[in-house]
Design a protein that fits this description.
The chain is of the alpha/beta class and 295 residues long. Helices cover 44% and strands 12% of the residues. The strands form 2 sheets. It has a 4-stranded parallel β-sheet with strand order 3-2-1-4. Strand 2, helix 3 and strand 3 form a beta-alpha-beta unit. The radius of gyration is 19 Å and the shape is globular. The protein starts with 18 loop residues before the first helix and ends with a helix.
């Protein structure tokens, strides 16, 4: 398929979408009407990639720019893949260096850490990028499911900076986002979620560049061993590894177990454990915010 995502390149696989999902995808374009030139806060994940692709189809590549925040919390592999996906879509990328690690409120790593990260990104976009690129609006890839989750403090930062959220406003769920992404043949359509590296550090324990590098290198070990997904939670000397439940047994197989332990210990952890519950989205934040909501 051509990398051209503009309106005249409608993939044949769109015919496989339900009428409802197709209508919601079209509604995203309607939400963006009049928003050109548009900046898309872009991470390279499926949500922001789909928003970027739909924006290019609706507004044209010349009126859309992908805004990629770069800091120690972004893994190098994610940064490289984000550029590859944007190139496939046909969108230009502007990297924005963010400095959330200089904010004591971010470093102390409370349940609201994501707010300070997103606030830093959106503030730098407002201060440094909007005027430089003549942007009429900025949007980010919140989907309808994320909009209902209590562990998304970054959404408040988007509200404070008047950032658009076309996917959730249109009503696209996470499943529908992936369906439309597959119809557009985006290379990240089935990419597992990849939250920032800071999400691997328990709340209340400081976020430091050293811990982020340690987590990144440990997760590179998982990829090198062929696991389809995985997260390394940082518990001081202990690396708690979360893997897809179908791949837990493989982590204990002869040969793999030894390489896993050797590789993770080599990046500075003393102990290596595998969590039998598997991958857990919001593992550190959800318990805290749910208690707050019940209170």
């Amino acid at each position: 398929m051509s990398s051209n995502m503009e309106e005249d390149a409608v993939p044949a696989r769109f015919e496989n979408l339900t009428a409802e999902t197709l209508a919601l995808a079209d509604a995203v374009g309607a939400e963006l009407a009049g928003a050109a030139p548009l900046g898309v806060a872009y991470s390279g994940g499926v949500d922001s990639a789909l928003l970027l692709a739909l924006a290019v189809r609706s507004l044209g590549a010349g009126d859309v720019v992908a805004l990629l925040g770069v800091s120690p919390s972004l893994a190098r592999s994610e940064r490289a893949r984000a550029h590859e996906t944007a190139a496939f879509i046909g969108a230009r990328v502007v990297e924005i260096e963010t400095h959330e690690g200089e904010n004591p409120d971010y470093v102390k790593n409370g349940a609201d850490r994501c707010f300070f990260c997103k606030d830093e990104l959106f503030r730098r976009i407002s201060d440094e990028v909007v005027a430089a690129h003549g942007l009429a609006a900025v949007a980010y890839g919140e989907n309808a499911d994320d909009a209902r989750r209590p562990d998304r403090p970054g959404a408040q930062a988007a509200t404070n900076h008047r950032v658009l959220r076309p996917l959730s406003v249109a009503g696209l769920t996470k499943q529908q986002v992936r369906e439309v992404a597959r119809a557009l043949e985006l290379p990240v359509a089935d990419k597992p979620a990849a939250p920032c590296l800071a999400s691997r550090i328990p709340h209340g324990e400081q976020v430091t560049p050293e811990k982020l590098r340690q987590v990144e290198r440990a997760e590179e070990v998982l990829r090198a061993l062929g696991f389809s997904d995985g997260r390394v939670r940082h518990h001081g000397d202990i690396a708690r590894i979360e893997l897809p439940t179908a791949e837990l047994a493989r982590a204990t197989a002869d040969g793999v177990r030894e390489e896993l332990v050797r590789g993770v210990r080599a990046v500075g952890f003393r102990f290596v454990v595998v969590d039998l519950k598997g991958i857990q989205s919001g593992a550190f934040t959800l318990p805290l915010v749910e208690v707050g909501h019940r209170g």
